[in-house]
Write the structure tokens for this entry.
Amino acid sequence: MAPVCYPCKVRTGYEPVPREADLSLHYPPRMAVIFLGIDIGGSTVKAAALRDGKVLWTARSLRYSRASTDQLQEAVRQACEQLHEPVAGVGLCVPGLLDEKREQITLSVNVPGLVGVPLKELVAPVAGDGAAPRVVNDANATAYDLYMGRGLSGRLLAIVIGTGVGAAVIDDGGKPLLVDGDSPGHIGQIDVSIDGAPVVGPDGGRGSLEGYLGAPALRARYGSNPSEKIRPRDPAARALVRAVRIAHAVYRPHHVCIAGGTGIRLARLLPALRQRIAEELTSVARTEWTFTTATSDFHAATGAARIAARGQWP
């Protein structure tokens, strides 16, 4: 029987993958297996299914707040209700601190229902009781999807702006740069203090990037739909400019991409931001570098599915 392609519940503008050489190494070309990515966020669960490196569908659950374990399991079912075939592997993004075996969350401030629950139980209703998810943080999954989906080479820095601010660095071959745990460093906590606009970030750090660009800070300053109201000379935009300038000296990326729910919606500011980033930029920076935003709210879910298909991470 020919494989069935189920229609997308949510259309996001995500384009088919132009290059996915890493997937073809891990299963026979005629074997139409499905890999599932699940991104558990602070307010929704997002899911993506891949076959032969191509996105079949993406979908999300209904919104929740500080969900219990039962609510999270139901949200996973909602996000994956288009799944009608067995899966070969599951990639899972979860917010919070993992235990040493990476099998459960020990602390999750915004999603308390995750704490102490074996992660395989969360995916069992859609992936089967024996499924052991490959756990990856959302910034790495987002960056990996951007890197492979856009067929990039060289080094990519993805700055993911949502509830908090995170980053991931991906090198040739889809290899992540890891400095502390699963991250290339805690970019949300770097000091980017802006004169006349002092802040203290949620970690207690003065002048932190998250104190300017994290969702709570933006809501406090702008109210609803903050990404539509930020102007190039506002403290939030100036903080992002300073962070990218610092990152050029630290990581020397060939590509910089602003991602996450807020980051995607800053595309209108890119020309002005790039101009300010480039002004007397350190000579250590690459002479030619690209500056873009992500295009989908499902990059993390899709990246998690790609990592599951890859079979190893990092």
